[in-house]
Amino acid sequence: MRSLIVISLSCFALAACDFGSEGAFTSGADLLTCDGSVPVCNTTAGCKMIEEDHYIEGEFPGFRQFIVETAGEAYIRIKIYWRTQLSPGSDTEIRWFEPACVENYRYESQGLNIFDEADGAGIWYKDERVFRAGDHLIEIRSDATGEYILRPEVLTVSEWEAQQAPELGEGGSPITIPF
Fold it and tell me: Which residues, other chains included, contact 109 with Cβ-Cβ below 8 Å and sequence gap of 6+?
């Protein structure tokens, strides 16, 4: 009986840790309200996010602006955990700006179901390569309907390339894992 109670309590404790979901996504980061007025380019953003240290919450449909700093050429990954998914909409756009907004790069969903593009943990992400050090304005607008948690991640070019390469086995051939 005692071992059954210990097992039950252990299972309850593990469930409380919320592994693989919202708790894992926000682990080690602080919530920012991101409703300020930080000058950037010829506009203002809600906040400056220190990549892995912060996250923001929000709802779509809507529009969000924030700043992510890089030390040089890098990839800025925008990661969104979908807390609720009511409608994927048809028009989601992310714009990454170089410092001083001299250039920008754009992702457009073009009618794709952004909820279907999320991984098994409910996380949807898009990467963009930026080339200059400094403050990068990020704008996200979407007609999707749902609640989200957003975290940026800054990857060096070599880190990003390593994530894109298949794992290689002996002889340089990709490793296949039988199921």
Answer: 89, 90, 91, 92, 93, 142
